[in-house]
Design goal:
The chain is α/β, with parallel strands linked by helices. It folds into two domains: 4-44 and 386-543, no CATH class; 50-383, no CATH class. Helices cover 25% and strands 25% of the residues. A hairpin with a 6-residue loop joins β11 (163-167) and β12 (174-178). α1 (4-34) runs antiparallel to α7 (515-543), α4 (392-424) packs antiparallel against α5 (445-456) and α5 packs across α7. The radius of gyration is 32 Å and the shape is globular.
């Protein structure tokens, strides 16, 4: 007949197996929720310029500011989003009466998609249209042959005072103008939004009441800060085979240079080895400014010159450490590449100002140069801003519980387990085991175990229990399996290139927690603990 000792060891062995299996299932569930992946199975990645992309849209704006913008340059071939006041034309800028906004392609690059606002294509989204009282300017959103018709929207139409809508002067579009004014009054006109007996006025309205409601939180700064030399940044090679510099990127990950690493004698540069996952980020520090002026080397290929112009979409000037006024100039060539300056007022000056070909995120922006602005969106990606919180919680338990439980268990478990487990763990397991065992031995465990368990259990329990949380997990795992679910819903939006043939199509993905696996793991752990309790009690009876 099987001895009580043998039966006790059998129960303990069963408990160890159940706990190990449960812990593995739970850890797997947590890992699945924590390691958000893109469609191709890689680690969670996102575009650091993603703050300019409206929620639900696949493309960002050429120019995006959270505050005011003044456009007094020649024209914009791209898209515009202004979170403050949008002013076109000032005395210090170009004096042309008309300011055109259209897709482009003759002087600049037309290979980009427009953002989506209220489920429709949008070229201009401004919080308020604020003309300069001393400089009349007719802003015209134009049709561009062969390109999508994308119009304008104004969030706050209560200003300027006295402005209203009417049919565009000399056309069938719609214009936002001062009542009683004429075709030379400051106004925002759209050729792509037909008047249609007044219906065109409604197309300027937004469904959301605030500009910010259309955009996700800007996590570019956090993303750039997260990537370090130890876990992400690669170091490219900079050489100067001719008058121009050559930057050879490490294709295994994102590359980082500081501005002072560019040869001072090179006014232009080109680069090789770029891709969605291996862009070049150039870090700019406050010490790089001279009297508030930042001089950037120019990329040596024009924004419209395909296919070599593709490199511009993988070049990012990181100005996240700068604040206040930052005047940007170049050494004779256009400024090319994307500018990330979320805390700065970026200025392209009237004197010395050059064309800008790229994408911009800034606190505010002023363009005064006698030049155009062209679109070359940034398509590089970096690791997501922060790791989902479920990765922390599951790893804390195994490292703390195993070191405390084997020594504490004999004195604390008999009094805590029978009362705590039935109230917190699933109601299916506790109805059989806990109600039988705890009612017989709770008064004998504390007096017997301290003298018997420490000499026998450490040789059996520690080999399995330290990796399985014998006493604490049953009270915490059911809540842990729920916690990652909430974390996953608030995890940073992740973006990746879901089409290997098109870097411009950045998908938005998110992770969810496999609750079933986590719950199953918890049940296994609970059953394992019950089995360990039964085995321990049988040993007690044998030794008693």
């Amino acid at each position: 007949m099987e001895s009580a000792f043998t039966r006790a060891r059998t129960w303990i062995a069963i408990g160890a197996v159940l706990i190990t299996t449960g812990a593995a299932l739970t850890a797997s569930a947590m890992a699945a929720s924590a390691a958000e992946t893109t469609d191709d199975g890689t680690t969670c990645l996102a575009n650091p310029m993603g703050g300019s992309t409206p929620i639900g849209s696949d493309s960002g704006y050429t120019l995006y500011t959270t505050g005011d913008t003044v456009l007094a340059n020649l024209e914009l071939e791209g898209t515009l989003a202004v979170g403050g006041d949008a002013t076109f034309g000032v005395k210090d800028g170009i004096s042309n009466l008309q300011y055109s906004i259209f897709h482009g392609g003759v002087g600049g690059n037309a290979d980009y998609d427009v953002p989506t606002i209220d489920e429709g294509p949008n070229r201009v989204l401004v919080n308020r249209f604020t003309p300069d009282p001393d400089m009349a300017k007719v802003v015209e959103v134009k049709r561009d042959g062969g390109q999508v018709d994308a119009g304008a929207k104004i969030v706050d139409q209560s200003a300027p005072a006295g402005y209203t809508f009417r049919q565009a002067f000399g056309g069938d579009g719609t214009t936002f103008y001062p009542a009683g004014g004429g075709n030379m009054s400051s106004q925002l006109t759209s050729q792509v939004q037909p008047w249609n007996d007044g219906a065109g006025a409604t197309t300027f309205a937004t469904e959301e009441s605030t500009f910010a409601a259309y955009f996700p939180e800007d996590e570019g700064t956090a993303q750039l800060a997260k990537v370090t030399a130890d876990d992400g940044w690669k170091t490219p090679t900079v050489s100067q085979p001719s008058n121009d510099a050559l930057v050879t990127l490490d294709s295994s990950g994102p590359n980082l240079l500081t501005l002072d690493e560019f040869p001072a004698s090179a006014s232009k540069f080109t680069m090789t080895g770029y891709s969605t996952t291996s862009p070049l980020v150039v870090k700019v520090s406050p010490s790089d400014l001279v009297d508030g002026v930042l001089t950037l080397p120019a990329y040596g290929v024009a924004g419209k010159d395909a296919p070599a112009n593709a490199a511009i979409s993988y070049l990012l000037w990181d100005l996240s450490d700068l604040s206040g006024d930052v005047t940007i100039v170049s050494r004779g060539e256009p400024v090319r590449g994307s500018i990330y300056a979320p805390n700065a007022h970026v200025i392209f000056p009237r004197d010395g100002g050059v064309e800008f070909e790229g994408q911009l995120i800034a606190a505010s922006f002023t363009a005064l140069m006698d030049r155009e602005i062209h679109t070359n969106l940034f398509y590089g990606v970096l690791p997501c801003a922060d790791a989902p919180t479920p990765t922390v919680t599951p790893t804390v338990e195994p490292t703390t519980d195993p070191t405390t439980e084997p020594t504490v268990e004999p004195t604390t478990d008999p009094t805590t387990e029978p009362t705590v487990e039935p109230t917190t763990d699933p109601t299916t397991e506790p109805t059989t085991e806990p109600t039988v065992e705890p009612t017989t031995d709770p008064t004998t465990e504390p007096t017997t175990d301290p003298t018997t368990e420490p000499t026998t259990d450490p040789t059996v329990e520690p080999t399995t229990d330290p990796t399985t949380d014998p006493t604490t997990d049953p009270t915490t795992d059911p809540t842990q399996s729920a916690e990652p679910t909430s974390s996953a819903t608030t995890a940073p939006v992740a973006s990746d290139d879901d089409d290997a043939t098109s870097d411009s199509e950045l998908a938005v993905t998110g992770g969810t927690v496999p609750v079933g696996a986590a719950l199953t793991g918890g049940l296994f752990v609970l059953a394992g603990v019950i089995a360990l309790v039964i085995g321990g009690l049988r040993r007690v009876r044998r030794n008693g």
